[in-house]
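Figure 3 (text version): structure tokens given as input.
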């Protein structure tokens, strides 16, 4: 009997322990935490923009015209000269050729021979790039060096069709893409593993977040390797005698969880009526009255005609005007209490029965009155 009671007691204690553990897990603000990997950019790990000028050939009469795009004719003749064909005195009509700008992004640590996607955009008056082929085009970086070469068939999502009296265009047929159309020819020299110091740049600069990242890294590694030097930058200095390379250190710390801290902000897009408020927004007690006075004037003219066979009569337009005034008498002065959370602030504004457009004006008026402890950004 005692053994049975002891077993039941152990089971009860197990259930209680599991319940307590579940409560602790649910009560921790893990949902608000983010990985360091998602909060920062690592110095040296970045893309580089490439650009080039080229020709797309093989178009079905939808290329550039000589009158509006003389550079296409010049580029075509120069290309033929490089291929050993004399075309200086030849009058050309490059209706099947279009001059294009080619853009691409060079990934970080990309090696020679790696293929990348490229974008092709018409810079003349070509109507459609569908079915065209981009000729070998060097892609240069900001320093003027060639880092990749692009070539291949252009894939266009949009299309255009034209008849005698009407035409239809869907999407952007003058912009296309070549999947794996670029081949990297030159690498950017940068050795991450040999660095003894590196900087982490926060996406959203904030002093509190920078200090939390510093504490999380130092607490995990057990050293004073991280140091927040400004609201945007955390510097990592590898201590003397620390054997792990910088790549291993970054791999370990980028999975650490940190709760970011942001300033209280209200972002307003007046064009679309979108309002986004951060969870840190707070307001002081304030009274709000919101009402509208609408004056409506409707014109309904009536045509008056004389009776049949009448003499001297004429057709006239008789004006009919209806005027009225609408006043929202049910709108009263309302007191919006001090909000301790974003939900209470939203509930207080919604209780006034106002729409997004009026809410934008009210939020700006609350800020002007000094009752909102938040920054308003208007897009």
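Below: residues designed for each position.
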């Amino acid at each position: 009997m005692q053994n049975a009671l002891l077993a039941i007691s152990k089971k009860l204690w197990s259930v209680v322990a599991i319940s307590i553990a579940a409560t602790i897990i649910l009560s921790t603000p893990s949902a608000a935490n983010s990985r360091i990997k998602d909060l920062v950019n690592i110095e040296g790990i970045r893309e580089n923009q490439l650009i080039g000028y080229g020709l797309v050939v093989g178009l079905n009469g939808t290329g550039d015209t000589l009158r509006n795009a003389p550079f296409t004719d010049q580029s075509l003749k120069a290309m033929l000269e490089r291929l050993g064909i004399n075309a200086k005195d030849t009058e050309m009509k490059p209706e099947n050729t279009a001059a294009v700008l080619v853009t691409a992004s060079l990934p970080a640590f990309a090696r020679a021979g790696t293929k990348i996607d490229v974008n092709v955009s018409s810079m003349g008056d070509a109507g459609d790039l569908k079915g065209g082929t981009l000729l070998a085009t060097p892609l240069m970086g900001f320093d003027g060096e060639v880092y990749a070469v692009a070539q291949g068939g252009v894939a266009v999502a949009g299309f255009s069709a034209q008849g005698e009296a009407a035409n239809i265009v869907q999407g952007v047929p003058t912009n296309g893409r070549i999947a794996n159309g670029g081949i990297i020819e030159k690498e950017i020299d940068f050795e991450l593993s040999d660095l003894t110091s590196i900087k982490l740049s926060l996406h959203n600069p904030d002093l509190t977040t920078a200090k939390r990242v510093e504490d999380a890294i130092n607490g995990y590694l057990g050293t004073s390797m991280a140091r927040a030097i400004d609201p945007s930058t955390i510097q990592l200095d590898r201590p003397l005698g620390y054997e792990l390379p910088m790549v291993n250190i970054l791999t370990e710390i980028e999975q650490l969880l940190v709760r970011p801290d942001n300033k209280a902000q209200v972002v307003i897009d007046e064009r679309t009526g979108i309002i986004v408020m951060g969870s840190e927004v707070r307001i002081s007690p304030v009274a709000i009255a919101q009402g509208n006075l609408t004056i409506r004037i409707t014109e309904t003219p009536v045509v008056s005609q004389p009776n049949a066979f009448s003499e001297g009569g004429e057709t006239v337009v008789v004006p009919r005007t209806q005027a009225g005034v609408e006043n929202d008498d049910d709108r009263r002065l309302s007191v919006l209490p001090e909000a301790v959370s974003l939900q209470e602030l939203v509930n207080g504004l919604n209780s006034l029965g106002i729409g997004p457009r009026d809410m934008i004006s009210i939020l700006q008026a609350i800020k002007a009155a000094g009752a909102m402890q938040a920054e308003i950004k208007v897009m």
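Residues 1-31 have pLDDT under 50 and may be disordered.
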